[in-house]
Structures are given as C-alpha cells and as structure tokens.
Amino acid sequence: MTIYGVALLALCFLVGKITGTLLGAAIGIDGDVGGVGFAMLLLVVGNNWLKHRGGLRRVTEGGILFWSAMYIPIIVAMASVQNVRAALTGGWVALLAGVAATVGGFLLVPVLSRIGRPAATQTEHE
C-alpha cells in the first residue's frame, strides 16, 4: 500500500534527523547538521535494498514517488527555518563541510551514473 512508502520515508526522516542532531552536538552546533540529507540517503539505500530483495511492491513505490514529488518544497520550507547564524558562526567548520560535500558529490557522479544501468551497457563503456 501507499502508506508503506510514506512509512519508509518517515522512518528515514526520523533516523536522519536524529543523526543530524547528534552530529551537530558532536561538532558543537546547537542544531541539525545534514539530517535531511542523511534521510534522503537512507531512503535511496533502503529503497534499492528493498527492490533488490523483492520487498518493495508497486503500490509501496507509489507512496515514495508521491513524497519525492513533494520533497523539494518541503526541503525549501525546512531550510527557511534552520539556524543560519549557527552555521555561519561555525566559520571554517561550515566551509570545510561545504567543500567536502561538494567534492564528495563530484566523486560520486561516476558511481551514481552506473546505478540502474544494465550489466551489458556497463561493460560496453568500460
């Protein structure tokens, strides 16, 4: 059912939010550091894991697809209430985190581009 997709998203969000809050506390920032990003990564990994194990039905994917369409507006709304001042007073820590995330994203482009590609296509391009 669609509700299972929504439940998976909610579980990933809660785990991501807790992880982000704990990470913020570990580096001395009173707030969430990347909780929504962690949630999205957990959702992608959980979704792929369930698909490969055959545990994700079509209707469950409907719940995930519904919320993926709503995800960008929700993220924009959440970002508007984050404590920007705490991030800016982090100085070098905030800058280093941004640079590390950007470099990590660039390094993951080839890996992510291979996900979902048929095995025959992967061997042709290598």
From TrEMBL:
Signal peptide: none annotated. InterPro entries: Maln_transptMadL. It comes from the Bacteria. Keywords: Membrane, Transmembrane, Transmembrane helix. The chain crosses the membrane at residues 34-50, 62-80, 92-112. Pfam families: MadL. NCBIfam families: malonate_madL (TIGR00807). This is Malonate transporter subunit MadL. It comes from Neolewinella maritima.
